[in-house]
């Protein structure tokens, strides 16, 4: 067999193989088309549900299709023509419902394509999806740090595609025993409510660490070293013993938790006329560990203002 004859036979084999592939593909396409095609029975009974509640989706829209209305739907949605209209017959463009349609009732007519067969019903448009809450983290704070939302504790955000949202919170505080890691745990439950009464919640845990004696900071002296002395002419808030009130001279810091308690005792030394010196002894106790510490605060009230110093009332 010569070379040219071999080439002709080879090309013929390729052409025949290619033809068989094309025929196979054509048969598959026809079979697939036939499997999708359904014979429509124009004498079938078609029934629509009435007063159907349509809830809008996450973007506050929804397209009305046949399976939302039909009872015992026989064919896919594409086999039906759907028309949504107002009570006076004005159609809704593309059957697209938005937040502008919320709370309203519409007429829906469903027709089987290619047949004079239809049914109708009414729908009401509702918002049944709750708002979404974001940024609701738990936090750990030191005693004395503010727990008000938006300060040391982040305030969550809430949103809803269909309406405005009201965000409220309720706190539940649990004071722990000395063996617990935290002195107090606040469970803050946030509730987001939209204009249609849909609600969602999140829990924000606020852990308050337990302080120790070492965390206590005592108030300064008013002796012209730490702070200026007080003038006799200054209108001060006084205790019954005549000493300046701690509201003026300060309290120990780091004592805002239940396990830390403090008290004080004043010894007053008259100096000259209305001048006096107060030795205020602070005692702080940690009830969980049994430790205590003592610190003295000197508070001086003078008839004379030291040169170059100013005093506020």
Summarize the structure.
The chain is mainly beta. Helix content is 12%, strand content 36%.
Topology:
Layout: H1 3-36, E1 47-48, E2 52-55, E3 62-63, E4 70-71, E5 80-85, E6 96-97, E7 105-112, E8 118-126, E9 132-134, E10 139-141, E11 157-159, E12 165-175, E13 182-194, E14 199-209, E15 230-231, H2 246-249, E16 260-270, E17 276-286, E18 292-302
Parallel strand pairs: 2-8, 10-14, 15-18
Antiparallel strand pairs: 1-4, 3-6, 5-7, 7-8, 9-11, 12-13, 13-14, 16-17, 17-18
How would you describe the overall organization of this protein?
The protein is mostly beta strands and 313 residues long. The protein has helices at residues 3-36, 246-249; strands at 47-48, 52-55, 62-63, 70-71, 80-85, 96-97, 105-112, 118-126, 132-134, 139-141, 157-159, 165-175, 182-194, 199-209, 230-231, 260-270, 276-286, 292-302. Strands 2-8-7-5 form a 4-stranded mixed sheet, with no helix packed on it. A hairpin with a 5-residue loop joins β17 (276-286) and β18.
């Amino acid at each position: 067999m010569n070379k040219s004859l071999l080439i002709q036979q080879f090309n013929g084999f390729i052409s025949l193989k290619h033809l068989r592939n094309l025929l196979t593909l054509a048969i598959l396409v026809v079979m697939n088309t036939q499997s999708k095609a359904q014979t429509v029975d124009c004498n079938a009974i078609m029934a629509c549900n009435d007063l159907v509640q349509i809830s809008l989706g996450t973007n506050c829209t929804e397209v009305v299709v046949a399976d939302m209305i039909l009872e015992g739907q026989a064919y896919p949605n594409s086999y039906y023509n759907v028309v949504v209209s107002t009570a006076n017959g004005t159609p809704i463009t593309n059957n697209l419902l938005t937040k502008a349609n919320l709370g309203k009732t519409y007429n829906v007519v469903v027709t089987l394509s290619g047949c004079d067969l239809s049914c109708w019903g009414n729908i009401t448009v509702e918002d049944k999806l709750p708002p979404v809450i974001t940024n609701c983290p738990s936090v750990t704070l030191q005693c004395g740090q503010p727990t008000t939302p938006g300060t040391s504790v982040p305030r969550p955000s809430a949103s809803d595609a269909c309406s405005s949202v009201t965000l409220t919170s309720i706190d539940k505080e649990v004071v722990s025993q000395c063996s617990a890691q935290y002195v107090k745990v606040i469970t803050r439950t946030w509730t987001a409510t939209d204009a249609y009464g849909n609600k969602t919640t999140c829990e924000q845990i606020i852990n308050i660490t337990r302080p120790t004696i070492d965390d206590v900071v005592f108030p300064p002296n008013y002796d012209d070293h730490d702070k200026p002395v007080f003038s006799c002419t200054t209108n001060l808030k006084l205790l019954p013993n005549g000493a300046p009130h701690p509201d003026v001279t300060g309290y120990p810091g780091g004592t805002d938790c239940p396990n830390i308690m403090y008290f004080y005792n004043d010894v007053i030394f008259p100096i000259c006329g209305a001048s006096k010196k107060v030795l205020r002894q602070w005692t702080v106790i940690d009830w969980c560990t049994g430790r205590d510490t003592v610190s003295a605060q000197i508070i001086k009230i003078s008839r004379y203002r030291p040169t170059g110093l100013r005093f506020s009332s």
